[in-house]
């Protein structure tokens, strides 16, 4: 456990004209790489996407599970209505802020990424040059990008034949889990919507009950009905808060992991591409050797020299690519294990948080009804 | 389809009826076949009007409606609040859901399917319990009423061991639902239009008309609210089923939480929504009484005018006088009886609300406490691992 860095994002000031700048403040207790203990910078949404872009193309990070940034489009995977669509709404801003915060927390949690100079620059540097390559990300979204890459891998003509089935088995596990999470996310989405409906209907009912209480001519009963209306109002408040928990703790967790599993799939694809590059290099080397043989036979000494040079070049490449492939295999294995540990911790933490929010809600509910009970008993 | 035979031992009665040992009625058993529900009406009595001290008969919903309608049509009972007829058993919702479930069976896991099926069976049972309860209460309102309990048709309903359907058909031909239809049309206008001399009735009229519209609104909104609650509960089943395939430990928790959520939803429904729905219908019955009295007053006013005319023409004066007297007597009888009925109705309503509100609050507390124990247990378990 090396996590001594605390990280927090402060909510943005609302700026309806364009994407708001977000203040990013970090505080670090003992990591020597940062100049100050606490520091704060302002970042645009596109800067976050830009950071991901930079990390995703680094060969040093090949095979790593790089946390994907949040979707630019609000809708993404959710069908939750009202407030979520409106860029100026408090809910939308909070959702984006929380998502960006989780994104950065995952980045700094990763031992390799924490060392990365681009990450440090992102956290520390006063002014960042505007990110330019974020079109693909913000337009199609992260998952679309991953899926396109996967398709390319699947269309590969040379199929891999592995004696160690770990990679094949693990990829299947990952794909299956992603499907299950999607299914679960859809149901939790439905739960959020239904709870919001319940909220609305409870509020409407409370008002109606208050009117009925006013009409009631028995004094004690009239009072009790008015009290009941107040309890139902409080219930509406509880339902609202529960719907927020349903969404921010549960649904968003699932959405994050659907994207993260996509990132994991991306690693496997990268390994496949590394293998493919190695195979193609071997194939090219073979062709070069055949060409040399032909030249030997045709007796063209100057071309022969070039051919020999090319063979050397490609032999080096084959060795290099084979080493790359082995190395990326090792990285992927390590990363997947690290990811699974993080995921288990993350899920457990969030589920405990979710259960605790429900627990508090039920405890308050008990108080409301216990306060109402004597009113009901007082009816005469 | 399905045959559900249940011995329904413990049920809560909305109002404290069935207290008088001289005539005790309950519905201990009911059978459900497709659309038809067959209720077993069980009577225990010390009254000599009945042939045996204890007996049971099978009755259908239509038999209850026949009984209600004959009471409404009975002139002598014009001054009484006739207990509202029980609504037709409605299994539409669970049946439709069962159908959808059958169609979607291929797309869900065996476990999810079984859970949904279990839940639908519980819903079926809840509808079933509800319909037995309203039919039972109808009979118990009659048995606890000083005048209505002595009605001959009521006794036939309880005792006659043959099929009532022949009687039902004859009754329909005779009355044709005449009076019932009359009552439905523009009763509020007529009630409001009357020039009231009696303070009591003036107040009652104002109160009942206003209260009726408010309680009708509350009933509709309560129904909507409990339906939403049910939807939330259903989502928990799906979550539970899906979590299971992810082999998460939380799945059993979610299932149990669902069961509690589902039970809260149907308990709320049984208590609050049914209470509101019942009294909405009862107030309609009280309004019907006001209507009949208003009609009697109108008749009396007409008879006065007719008497004046007769006196003017010096023609048929004794008949006009007699008619006027009859109208007055009828009106006075309705007013006297109506006053008694409306006063006891007030008391009954307050008692019923009190009982139901207390029970509802106690149930909410009980279920929430269960939830708290459940949740705390899960949290402790997860934190300790």
UniProtKB/TrEMBL annotation, chain A:
<dbReference type="GO" id="GO:0035091">
    <property type="term" value="F:phosphatidylinositol binding"/>
</dbReference>
<dbReference type="GO" id="GO:0034498">
    <property type="term" value="P:early endosome to Golgi transport"/>
</dbReference>
<feature type="domain" description="PX">
    <location>
        <begin position="1"/>
        <end position="130"/>
    </location>
</feature>
<keyword id="KW-0472">Membrane</keyword>
<dbReference type="GO" id="GO:0030027">
    <property type="term" value="C:lamellipodium"/>
</dbReference>
<dbReference type="InterPro" id="IPR027267">
    <property type="entry name" value="AH/BAR_dom_sf"/>
</dbReference>
<protein>
    <submittedName>
        <fullName>Sorting nexin 1</fullName>
    </submittedName>
</protein>
<keyword id="KW-0966">Cell projection</keyword>
<dbReference type="Pfam" id="PF00787">
    <property type="entry name" value="PX"/>
</dbReference>
<keyword id="KW-0653">Protein transport</keyword>
<keyword id="KW-0007">Acetylation</keyword>
<dbReference type="InterPro" id="IPR036871">
    <property type="entry name" value="PX_dom_sf"/>
</dbReference>
<keyword id="KW-0813">Transport</keyword>
<dbReference type="GO" id="GO:0005829">
    <property type="term" value="C:cytosol"/>
</dbReference>
<keyword id="KW-0967">Endosome</keyword>
<dbReference type="GO" id="GO:0015031">
    <property type="term" value="P:protein transport"/>
</dbReference>
<keyword id="KW-0597">Phosphoprotein</keyword>
<dbReference type="Pfam" id="PF09325">
    <property type="entry name" value="Vps5"/>
</dbReference>
<dbReference type="InterPro" id="IPR001683">
    <property type="entry name" value="PX_dom"/>
</dbReference>
<comment type="similarity">
    <text>Belongs to the sorting nexin family.</text>
</comment>
<dbReference type="InterPro" id="IPR015404">
    <property type="entry name" value="Vps5_C"/>
</dbReference>
<dbReference type="GO" id="GO:0031901">
    <property type="term" value="C:early endosome membrane"/>
</dbReference>
TrEMBL record, chain B:
<keyword id="KW-0175">Coiled coil</keyword>
<dbReference type="InterPro" id="IPR015404">
    <property type="entry name" value="Vps5_C"/>
</dbReference>
<dbReference type="InterPro" id="IPR014637">
    <property type="entry name" value="SNX5/SNX6/SNX32"/>
</dbReference>
<dbReference type="GO" id="GO:0006907">
    <property type="term" value="P:pinocytosis"/>
</dbReference>
<dbReference type="Pfam" id="PF00787">
    <property type="entry name" value="PX"/>
</dbReference>
<dbReference type="GO" id="GO:0042147">
    <property type="term" value="P:retrograde transport, endosome to Golgi"/>
</dbReference>
<feature type="domain" description="PX">
    <location>
        <begin position="1"/>
        <end position="164"/>
    </location>
</feature>
<dbReference type="Pfam" id="PF09325">
    <property type="entry name" value="Vps5"/>
</dbReference>
<dbReference type="GO" id="GO:0005768">
    <property type="term" value="C:endosome"/>
</dbReference>
<dbReference type="GO" id="GO:0035091">
    <property type="term" value="F:phosphatidylinositol binding"/>
</dbReference>
<dbReference type="GO" id="GO:0034452">
    <property type="term" value="F:dynactin binding"/>
</dbReference>
<keyword id="KW-0653">Protein transport</keyword>
<dbReference type="InterPro" id="IPR001683">
    <property type="entry name" value="PX_dom"/>
</dbReference>
<dbReference type="GO" id="GO:0015031">
    <property type="term" value="P:protein transport"/>
</dbReference>
<feature type="coiled-coil region">
    <location>
        <begin position="103"/>
        <end position="130"/>
    </location>
</feature>
<comment type="similarity">
    <text>Belongs to the sorting nexin family.</text>
</comment>
<dbReference type="InterPro" id="IPR027267">
    <property type="entry name" value="AH/BAR_dom_sf"/>
</dbReference>
<dbReference type="InterPro" id="IPR036871">
    <property type="entry name" value="PX_dom_sf"/>
</dbReference>
<protein>
    <submittedName>
        <fullName>Sorting nexin 5</fullName>
    </submittedName>
</protein>
<keyword id="KW-0813">Transport</keyword>
<dbReference type="GO" id="GO:0005829">
    <property type="term" value="C:cytosol"/>
</dbReference>
